[in-house]
Write a structure and sequence with these properties.
Elements (H helix, E strand, L loop, with lengths): L6 E4 L3 H12 L5 E4 L13 E4 L13 E4 L6 H4 L11 E4 L6 H8 L3 E6 L9 E7 L5 H11 L3 E5 L6 H9 L1 H18 L4 H21 L4 H8 L5 H9 L4 H21 L1
Parallel strand pairs: 1-2, 1-4, 2-3, 4-5, 5-6, 7-8
Antiparallel strand pairs: 6-7
Amino acid sequence: MIALPNLLLVGGGRMGSALLAGWREQGLSQAVVVDPSEAARALAGEGVTVVAGAEDIPPGFVPEAVVLAVKPQSAASALPAYGRFAGTALFISIMAGKTLAGIGALLGGGAIVRAMPNTPAAVRQGVTVACAGQGVSAAQRGLAGALLGATGAVAWVDEEALLDPVTAISGGGPAYVFLLTELMEQAATALGLPADLARLMARQTVIGSAALMAASAETPEALRVAVTSPGGTTAEALKVLRADDAWPKNFLEAMKAATERSRALSG
């Protein structure tokens, strides 16, 4: 149960609205959402007030936590307006690529937690990795963990630089799983299976495999070995995928490229 009478969410997009939904499920009593879009109006109700801009925040409202869920490219213009809360509120940023130092400079200081969630947060199956900046108290870290944990698992790192490979692996991870599903579907149709059956097989195989992994104490390697009979059809397919170590090598190179891009975006 989260009891937060003064919670401010800046940005009601996909990830912001996923967080808000998770908080509501855990008993959120009151919050203010700042988002100028027409779509954000649907977030109002059940103790949630939606306003178009920082200047429209109700007078006297002093948030205990401010969650920054705006697009990174909007940070420079959007964040300074919330600097007035820097002395009292914990700031939690889920903006990709924006560093603790950069966020602090825009706000004029304050206690800041930087976090990287992923899109399965929308179904409360996400994973968020967070890093606390200087001046974040144990109580504030606990508050951040509770808020971020409303959409799935939460882990912490002490080195902010580790959020770059986190972004590559878990931040972008759903896209890699979706790509695998696409490729399975395309292969199925190329081998003559009807399109509707190909889609069903690809989607449900990925969904079912994830559910099996979630329910099992075995490692992914052990689960893979269990379905791979020596000399069988799966072993033959894996032999092609792992020829010359191509698939593992390519995946590692892809993660390195994403990590480097994250570092470049953070400046």
